[in-house]
Structure formats: structure tokens, C-alpha cells
Amino acid sequence: MGLWFSASAVVPTLVARYGLDAVRASLLTSAVQAGFVAGTLGSALFGLADRLDGRRFFMVATLVGAAANLGLLFLAPSSPAVIALRFVTGAATAGVYPVGMKMAASWADGDLGLLIGILVGALTLGSASPHLVNALGGVDWRLTIAAASLAATAAALAINAVPLGPRLGPAPRFEARAALLAWTRRPLRLANCGYLGHMWELYAMWAWLGVFLDASFRAAIDGPAAAVWARLATFGAMGVGGALGCLAGGGLADRFGRTVLTSGAMLVSGGCALVTGFLFGGPPWAVFAVAFVWGIAVVADSAQFSASVAELAPPELTGTMLTVQTCGGFLLTLVTIHVMPVLVADWGWGLAFAALAPGPFLGALAMLRLRADPAAARLADGRR
């Protein structure tokens, strides 16, 4: 998952060195989102996540993504081909994220939330890893890109050692209409609406938090140390905080209920969205503290939407339902990722981040409605 934000992590450097404008900087992330949407849409229509051996699908997709990411080293950052390669990277990841969740779910035995929480925690840590490499690698942005491709290649080989669990459903026959169940069945629809509210906030926060911290720290600290601290703070909030949030969220959801955890986490993250931007230029420790809490809360619920769908969906269509869910969520992120720089320019960081808050607040409402649905008794062994 280091491939996802490999280019986004070096945006401040590319803007300073190559003069990238806000639109092209946004495209470095949103092209990945668009590619992921296209990839998940194709995978859902043909039921690939349920019909293919997940390990082989994961391996081939990861190698394609690693090659596309490595291709960035041979192009000028301002080249349109860079955006095309980012699109291919996103499309390839459609064979990684939902497929990995299905493989994890196949081993669940009363701990589905924790298992998928561990996987999403790995996703979060991996997505944030380019920020750490960028901080340790100095000014050469190419090192960040190369390290992400190397890590992905290692993952493509390692996945072959993962056995498939006993709860893996049989491969269904191809039926494109099966993807519609995600929206025609009310419990699945409510879980997906909660996920959409979560995604309205998540990737816009992840894509722009590093830029925000870089600008905020530079306003508060003189000298080049500001950039290094900002990169480390970004990795700390996104990677460390996010991974902790996923692990804690998984365990708490299995114990106290999916809807309780998701609605609570979204209320906290929405509150952080309302506050964080107004701290711009303040003491770095205070800015980081709030960003760290936001990093925990913004993704603590992520795995539980997937766990909810896995528990509510027909077993033979788990992979397809997870793929449809992620497809819709990432399609929505295309809006917020591109709107953010416009809002920052017109309103400033405070109101721009605050514009993300309605998503988690509405998502919490959807999950509380799911809690009242009789089908919610299937969540977490009856712990709604």
C-alpha cells in the first residue's frame, strides 16, 4: 500500500522544484482513486474477487502497481504520462485491498473486526510509509518512489505464503446483477452509506494532512528542520496513529459492537476536522497532538464497515460486496481530494478541513439506523 501515496508524499518537494500547480498536485492522488474505482468496478462486475485465487490475483495486481509506480522515475513530474501511471497504480490496487480483506475474513472465528482491523492497520501504515521514507531520505524524492515499488514487490512474493481460511465461500457463477445487492438490501445499503460518510473525510485528510503540516510547521519553525518534522509528524499521525486506531477499533468493535464503534469514531473524527485547520501556524506540538488524535479516529472505523458488509452479505458474494463498497467510497474521494485545495485557497485551512465534517456525522447517523435494523443481530455475534 506504499504505492498509494508514494507520489503524494513528495508533493511539497515537487511543487517547490518543478512548480506543480494545485490541480496537478491533486491529480497525483485522485488519479489513483480513479484507477481504483475503475479497477474495483471491473472486478465487481466480473466477480473476480470471488472467482479467482486471491493470492494470485493479489500478486499479479501488486507487481503491475509496482511497475507503474517505478515508471515515475523515468518521466518528468509535469508529464501527463505521470497521471496515467498513477491511474494504473490505482487500478492494480483493486486486486489488493478488497481481496486482502476477503482473505482475512476467511479466517474469522468471532474476531472478524480485529482481523480486518489488523489488515486495514497494515494498509494505513503502508500508505503512510512514503512520508517516513521521504523524511529519512532527504531531498531526493526518487528514493521514496523506489522504496515503495521495492516494498510492493516483496509483498507480491510474500502473499503466496498466505493460506486461505476455512470460511472461504465457493466461487459463484458470473452474474453482474449480484453487485446490485449492495444497494437493494437495506442493511447492506446502510452499512455502505456509513462507509461513504467515512470516505468523504478519510482520503482528503490523508492526501492533504502532509501539505497542511508542512505549511503549518514552516510558519512556526525557522529553517529546514520544519520540513523534516512535518514529514515525521505526518507519518506519526497517519501511520502510527492510524495503525493503532485500526487495532483498537477492531478489538473494541468485536467486544462492544460494530455500530457503536463506527458511530463513535466518526463523531470524534468529525470533531477533529472542525478543529485541526484553525490551529494552523500554532505550536507544532499542539498541532501534531490534534492531528494524531484525528489520525487514530479517522480510520479506527474503516475496517468495521468492511466487517459489517462481510457479515451481512451472502457468503459466496463476500468479495464482490466488499469490492462494490470500496468502489463507491473511493469514487466519492475524487470529489473531496480536488475540492480541498480550492477551499484552502478561498477559505483557509480551518474552513477547508471543517467541510469534511458533515461526511462522518451523516455516516454516524446511517450506522445508528443500522443498529435499529433486525439484521444488525448478525453483526459481531449479536453485538451491534
Protein architecture, described:
The structure is a single chain. The protein is mostly helical and 384 residues long. It has one domain (8-160, 176-382): MFS general substrate transporter like domains (Growth Hormone, Chain: A, Up-down Bundle). It has 17 helices and no strands. The chain has helices at 11-18, 22-46, 48-51, 54-70, 80-93, 97-105, 112-136, 141-158, 181-184, 186-220, 225-256, 258-276, 284-300, 302-312, 318-347, 349-354, 358-371. The protein starts with 10 loop residues before the first helix and ends in a 13-residue tail after the last helix. The mean pLDDT is 85.
Question: What number is the mean pLDDT?
Answer: 85
Query: What is the CATH topology?
Result: Growth Hormone, Chain: A
Strand content: under 5%
Structural class, by secondary structure, is: mainly alpha
What's the name of the CATH homologous superfamily?
MFS general substrate transporter like domains
Strand segment count: 0
CATH architecture: Up-down Bundle
The parts where pLDDT drops under 50 for at least 5 residues are none
Number of helices: 17
The rounded distance between the terminal residues' Cα atoms is: 30 Å
Shape: globular
Order of helices and strands: HHHHHHHHHHHHHHHHH
CATH class: Mainly Alpha
Q: What's the story with the biggest beta sheet?
A: none
What's the structural domain tally? 1
What is the share of helical residues?
A: over 70%
Q: What would you report as the Rg, rounded to the nearest angstrom?
A: 20 Å
